[in-house]
Write a structure and sequence with these properties.
Blueprint lengths: L2 H19 L3 E5 L5 E8 L2 E7 L5 E7 L4 E6 L5 E8 L2 E7 L5 E8 L2 E7 L5 E8 L2 E7 L5 E8 L2 E7 L5 E8 L2 E7 L5 E8 L2 E7 L5 E8 L2 E7 L5 E8 L2 E7 L5 E5 L1
Antiparallel strand pairs: 1-2, 2-3, 3-4, 4-5, 5-6, 6-7, 7-8, 8-9, 9-10, 10-11, 11-12, 12-13, 13-14, 14-15, 15-16, 16-17, 17-18, 18-19, 19-20, 20-21, 21-22
């Protein structure tokens, strides 16, 4: 074969390659003639698929009108991992063996977050890192918030809610010390226990959130306070440095009786 013939053959091969590359679909075969990589372009955009020896698409990457997306599947072709970039930011989704979302990791303008779902696709746990601090939240089977733990500029806090998402118990550590709060079905405080610089304290409230009794241990000794329906102090009993004392007042807070 002359040099001129070789050049003509090479030019023909190049033209074939140009035709192949410029088509809307490109397939790469293995040594057995089976598709292993496929690239095609349709009305939604370009798509790249990687195929295993059983003919199952195991990895796919595409760019549609809205966003780029990467998908990884198991041996049955069921999606198990998906990654895309939406308007709010990147999103990573992990699926169970039935193709249902089980975990979602996202990064938005509010910060990163992790959402975990049960077998019915209902959110059950969420971890976020917002501008005011990290938080952990847990939901029941009805997607109602039942427990939360977060840390903000005032300190760490633990909250527990009933089936109606009403706050029933909370614990917090602020700059003054730890506080434990227990509330009624309307989220109104019923009891509060705290340990501050001046000593431990237990306060109890009525259904109108009025302080009715308080027991504390201060530097000068323990004391018990009781109030009326208006929250006015009516009786006090304590043990101070010079001994026990009792003090009672009327509804106008005037002294009625005391001992000693």
């Amino acid at each position: 074969m002359t040099t001129e013939e070789r050049l003509e053959k090479l030019e023909r091969e190049i033209e074939k390659m140009k035709t192949l590359i410029c088509t809307k679909a490109l397939c790469i075969l293995d040594d057995q003639g089976q598709e292993c990589i496929k690239l095609n372009v349709d009305e939604d955009g370009p798509m790249l698929a990687m195929i295993d020896k059983n003919g199952t698409v195991r990895a796919g990457m595409n760019v549609n009108k809205d966003r780029p997306m990467l998908t990884l599947t198991d041996k049955n072709g069921t999606p198990r991992v998906g990654m895309n970039v939406i308007e709010d930011g990147p999103l990573l989704t992990m699926f169970d063996e039935n193709g249902q979302p089980s975990a979602i990791i996202a990064v938005t303008e509010d910060g990163p977050g992790l959402l975990m779902l049960d077998e019915n696709g209902k959110p059950r746990a969420k971890i976020t890192v917002a501008k005011n601090g990290p938080g952990l939240f847990m939901m029941d089977e009805n997607e109602n918030l039942r427990a939360g733990m977060n840390v903000d500029e005032t300190g760490p806090m633990l909250s527990m809610m009933d089936e109606n998402e009403n706050l029933r118990a909370g614990m917090k550590v602020n700059e003054d010390g730890p506080v434990l709060l227990m509330a009624d079905k309307n989220s109104e405080p019923s009891a509060q226990m705290s340990v501050y610089k001046d000593g431990p304290r237990l306060a109890m409230f009525d259904e109108n959130a009025k302080l009715r009794a308080q027991m504390s241990v201060a530097k000068d000794g323990p004391g018990l306070f009781m109030g009326d329906a208006n929250g006015n102090p009516r009786a006090w009993m304590g043990v101070v440095e010079d001994g026990p004392r009792i003090l009672m007042k009327d509804e106008k807070e005037k002294h009625v009786w005391s001992a000693p």
